[in-house]
Design a protein that fits this description.
With 122 residues, this protein is mostly beta strands. It has no helices and eleven strands. It is 0% helix and 60% strand.
Length: 122
């Protein structure tokens, strides 16, 4: 099994910054693509940013382009989301996602963290 644990959420004023972290742990053979999603009250979960296994390819939702940066440290099986110029509409629970394979499995499976709350006040 693979566990994803997010940290770094909190309350920040509009225009402020936060950095989220997500560490994958368990009997991991390899972590492939990783990403961040968010879900606000009454809305569906949406993709915020994703990053390829080597970190060379990233993808962002239009609403966060130029403000958020996704990165990863493969030695630590950790993905980060640096969020700048935060807006009240960024308020949501942010979830980490990873495609990973364990030593006991032959296929990659999709894993989710439990989420971390980000609240941006106006």
């Amino acid at each position: 099994q693979v566990q994803l644990v997010e940290s770094g959420g909190g309350l920040v004023q509009a225009g402020g910054s936060l950095r989220l972290s997500c560490a994958a742990s368990g009997i991991i053979f390899r972590v492939n693509a990783m990403g961040w999603y968010r879900q606000s009250a009454g809305k569906q979960r949406e993709m915020v940013a994703s990053i390829s296994s080597g970190g060379g390819s990233t993808n962002y939702a239009d609403s966060v382009k130029g403000r958020f940066t996704i990165s990863r440290d493969n030695a630590k099986n950790t993905v980060y989301l640096s969020m700048n110029s935060l807006k009240p509409e960024d308020t949501a629970v942010y979830y980490c996602n990873a495609a990973a394979r364990t030593y006991s499995g032959s296929l990659y499976a999709n894993y989710w963290g439990r989420g971390t709350q980000v609240t941006v006040s106006s």
